[in-house]
């Protein structure tokens, strides 16, 4: 073998043969068609949400924390719909937290906001997919955007630190690294990605800031701003990563194709299971009853539950498609309780949504929260 | 979708999923992205089943190529965090070949989507330049130049590949 093409051919073949095909593709496609039609035809508003009945969930890996509670563990925690878009590419409607109104912002992408909802990162239209050398900091109260030119193209969307001081994203030039931008000075620095994680980085990776604004999660590795690894999260078998718990001590994962799509698992850094629930919805009947060994085969196994965000340390916000449109629920990881929640949504149709926790409720008009 | 069509669609997917998923893996380089890509294409196919059921596989393949190269398919739409696993490689040579293959794997992951798609069509699927051009809705000249640039790019990203020849037909 002395031609590059032969080597490429062998490598592509090996990549293609590396994994067996997932199960349930046809049923998920059929469900997807239903969702698309529902999204096109049905409005999603308070009336539709109010029609939601309470649904149940099955906890199958409960920690020893006493008897299950009646209500979801996150009750009392509030959230806001920070931004929505009715297409995949914007424009977006972004919340002004002081008035509760939404302002139209014609950008391609809006990030999760800072902890006080004051700022978020935005990406302009028209740049090459997954590559941009220009990002903006959007100010929720004024609608103004401060633009920054980056020395190296950023791959994937930028995220903003909870304190609003930094933005970060993946740069692939000259090698995979984290590009950190000081939003006050406009100065960008490159933070090395540890070798093991660097191999996995592609243009779809995002950098997630941790509470405290001094640590970043990339792939399964937490690094500080000097590039030192402070934690590595090992994925439980047959799962994929969704999020870190807000305190950074546990990871939320969902099953890959070998597991039902309604199972959420909380695991520690070493992949040991802490808790897990299988969300159930009576009207979302399974046509593909599969379940992990030793767990129940839940009724909602064929529903796609989208993770929207955390609702406190032990509860999630999830969304699931129903016949009348997508509905949002608070799901307790502690006892499996599910409760419909009714967010004020600026558009009756949406394709993308940013949901953020409300840390300091005094700064946010109450009517915008849910 | 009516029940007979649903059954027909299920049969099609059951029979062709391994082959289609193989292509999705080659196009994306990772399981999650591949699953997402194939799911997207199958959903499109299912929605148009009556008009494409005579040759659904061709439609799915085309949908995957086009979705991969021409659309910013927003990941993390609802802020799930994408974790892009490059497949593990048990059974690699344990000598210098490992470094070479790792370098190539990394370099392939750095290619643009269109360039990777052209390499997959030409060298994994063994399509001709004309067939590739038709599949991607581009000219034969574009296929030729994209192929050349992709191979050049691999050698730039992974200097270890510099000693490997470029084929005469793309130089």
List keywords for this structure.
heterodimer; A: 370 residues; mainly beta; seven-stranded antiparallel sheet; five-stranded antiparallel sheet; 4 helices; 24 strands; 38% strand; globular; B: 171 residues; mainly alpha; elongated
Taking all Cα atoms into account, the compactness measure Rg of chain B is: 18 Å
Strand element count of chain A:
24
Number of helices of chain B: 8
Strand content of chain A: 35-45%
As laid out across the biggest beta sheet of chain A, the strand order is 5-6-7-8-9-10-11
Number of helices of chain A: 4
Q: State the helicity of chain B in percent bands.
A: 55-70%
Largest interface: A-B, 66 and 70 residues
User: How would you characterize the largest beta sheet of chain B?
Assistant: none
| Order of helical and strand elements of chain B | HHHHHHHH
Distance between the termini of chain B: 49 Å
Shape annotation of chain B = elongated
**Low-pLDDT regions of chain A:** 36-75, 285-302
The ordered H/E elements of chain A are HHHEEEEEEEEEEEHEEEEEEEEEEEEE
Helix share, percent of chain A: 10-25%
Helical/strand content category of chain B: mainly alpha
Q: Give the overall pLDDT of chain B as a whole number.
A: 77
Radius of gyration of chain A: 21 Å
The N- to C-terminal Cα distance of chain A equals 62 Å
- Derived structural class of chain A: mainly beta
Q: In a nutshell, what does this entry contain?
A:
The complex is a heterodimer of chains A (370) and B (171). Chain A has 370 residues and is mainly beta.
């Amino acid at each position: 073998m002395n031609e590059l093409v032969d080597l490429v051919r062998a490598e592509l073949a090996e990549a293609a043969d590396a994994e067996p095909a997932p199960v349930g593709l046809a049923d998920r496609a059929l469900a997807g068609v239903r969702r698309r039609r529902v999204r096109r035809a049905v409005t999603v508003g308070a009336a539709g949400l109010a029609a939601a009945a309470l649904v149940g969930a099955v906890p199958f890996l409960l920690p020893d924390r006493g008897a299950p509670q009646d209500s979801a563990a996150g009750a009392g925690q509030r959230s806001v719909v920070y931004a929505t878009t009715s297409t995949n590419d914007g424009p977006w409607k972004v919340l002004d937290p002081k008035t509760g109104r939404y302002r139209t912002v014609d950008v391609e992408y809006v990030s999760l906001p800072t902890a006080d909802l004051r700022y978020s990162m935005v990406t302009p239209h028209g740049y090459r997919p997954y590559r941009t050398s220009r990002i903006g900091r959007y100010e929720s109260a004024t609608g103004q955007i401060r633009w920054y030119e980056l020395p190296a193209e950023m791959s994937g969307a930028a995220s903003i630190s909870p304190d609003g001081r930094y933005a970060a994203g993946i740069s692939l030039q000259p090698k995979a690294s984290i590009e950190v931008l000081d939003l006050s000075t406009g100065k960008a620095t490159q933070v090395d990605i540890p070798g093991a994680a660097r191999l996995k980085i592609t243009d779809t990776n995002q950098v997630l800031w941790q509470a405290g604004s001094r640590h970043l999660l990339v792939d399964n590795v937490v690094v500080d701003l000097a590039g030192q690894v402070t934690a590595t999260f090992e994925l439980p078998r047959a799962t994929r990563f969704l999020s870190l718990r807000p305190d950074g001590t546990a990871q939320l994962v969902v099953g890959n194709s070998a597991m039902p799509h309604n199972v959420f698992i909380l695991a520690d850094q070493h992949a040991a299971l802490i808790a897990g629930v299988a969300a159930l919805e009576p009207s979302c009947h399974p046509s593909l009853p599969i379940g992990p060994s030793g767990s129940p085969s839940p009724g909602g196994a064929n529903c796609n539950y989208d993770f929207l965000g955390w609702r406190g340390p032990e509860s999630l916000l999830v969304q699931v498609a129903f016949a009348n449109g997508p509905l949002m629920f608070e799901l307790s990881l502690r006892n499996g309780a599910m409760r419909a929640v009714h967010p004020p949504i600026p558009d009756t149709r949406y394709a993308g949504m940013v949901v953020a926790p409300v840390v300091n409720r005094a700064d946010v008009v109450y009517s915008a929260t849910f | 979708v009516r029940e007979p069509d649903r059954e027909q669609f299920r049969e099609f997917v059951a029979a062709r999923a391994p082959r289609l998923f193989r292509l999705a893996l080659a196009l994306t380089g990772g399981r999650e992205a591949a699953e997402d890509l194939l799911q997207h294409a199958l959903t499109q196919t299912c929605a148009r089943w009556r008009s494409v059921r005579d040759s659904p596989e061709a439609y799915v393949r085309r949908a995957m190529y086009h979705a991969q190269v021409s659309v910013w398919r927003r990941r993390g739409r609802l802020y799930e965090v994408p974790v892009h696993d490059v497949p593990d490689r048990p059974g690699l040579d344990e000598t210098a070949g490992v470094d070479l293959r790792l370098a190539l794997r990394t370099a392939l992951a750095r290619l643009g989507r269109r360039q990777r798609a052209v390499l997959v069509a030409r060298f994994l699927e063994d399509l001709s330049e004309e067939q590739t051009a038709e599949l991607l809705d581009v000219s034969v000249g574009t296929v030729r130049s994209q192929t050349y640039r992709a191979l050049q790019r691999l050698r730039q990203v992974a200097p270890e590949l510099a000693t490997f020849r470029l084929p005469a037909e793309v130089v």
